[in-house]
Design goal:
With 445 residues, the chain is mainly beta. The chain has a single domain, classed as Methylamine Dehydrogenase, Chain H. Helices cover 6% and strands 43% of the residues. The chain has two helices and 35 strands. Strands 2, 3, 4, 5 and 6 form a five-stranded antiparallel β-sheet that branches. Strand 16 and strand 17 form a beta hairpin. It is globular and about 50 Å long. The relative contact order is 0.14.
Length: 445
Amino acid sequence: MLGKRMRKGFAATWLVTVMWVGSSARGDDWPQWMGPQRDGVYRETGVIDAIPANGLPVRWRVPIHGGYAGPAVANGRVYVTDYVRTAGEARNDPGQRMELSGRERVLCFDARTGELLWKHEYECRYHISYPAGPRATPTVAHGKVYTLGAEGDLLCLDAAKGDVLWSKALKTEYQTEAPQWGFCGHPLVDGDKLICLVGGEGSVVVAFDKDTGRELWKAVSAPDAGYCPPSIIEAAGVRQLIVWDPEKINSLHPDTGAVYWTQPLKPDYGMSIMAPRKAGNYLFASGIGRVGALYELRQDRPGIKRVVWTGEAKTALYAANTTPLIDGDTIYGVDCDSGLLMAVDLATGKRLWETPQPTTGERRGGHGTAFLVKHENRYFLFSETGDLIIARLTRRGYAEQGRFQVLEPTGECFGRDVVWSHPAFADRACFARNDRELVCVSLAR
């Protein structure tokens, strides 16, 4: 009965979504993490149906340095951050922080040619684990680009010229330390606010005036800020800011920081990473340690009506490096324990199928990674092997429609070479980076 009710609700939600998309202009920018609406949906038209056997045209390649931060594309420009190491050993050990010296950089390229238009750099000492470089994708809005470095350097720059308009040293101003794996929460612009994960007593999340950097409000206490990007949902007719810290999911009033509700959800090692996903009147979140749940949201006021199921008692999906997508009544995502892409029934948590094809391939191993982006009735997947894949994902299975190696995997995870960076899709192209180069690959039909 639950499944039927949920499917009916999802069908209505999908119809509304289709009607909204159909009535909107098709954007060709990717100005932040997971796209214009932070939903992992690529809405551009005139894009290839499948990847041909002879591959895809590479428009340009340019050298950059280390980092996990994906690129952002807006107004004909590509923005990406990296780290130029000058001293120290960049060895990956999940339990140990590394001491490095170097410079973090913000780079701006012409999206059509790859020409470097400007760069801004600053000295930055690292004391984090997996210290390749910055983690957070730049956020571009209203002529400004916002970047968050791995050690908490928050910058607002003029998007056209690269001039610093304001900056914050979050560790100093809020008396906090970088989480074990660095500052990761991709900054969110909401109205006149820039909302960021920070840390410190009462300041897990802080809203700044996006134009001046003045603090507008701060909220929530936790051992540290965690790694989950802030996101906005609407439920019970109310806009709610969702922030998952290492101990609990928080729903806040976006304009004031007042807490609507909290729900305990504590993954291992403080690894609250994925952005909780809303589908119809339900919210899903999960993480390492077989921790996860589906919540039914209240419809009369902000709150949790009930826990539909918990991952501890189900097979379910336990996400880490990438945020899953919900399509109708199915969750598609990568499980951190097995490293497999899988489909999970949203109503029950039951696994429908799983495959290593777009993640680790024959290498197999935990923390396998593929970044998922939906386009029309298929998906673009960017694998940890550096492959761009087009595939159909349904409740019945996984069917590839071609793949092309865009980049060499230059990072390392548990003895595997990996690329752990979310690509951008704009201008009928895919923009992706590793620790050596930024690449633009044509997707034009």
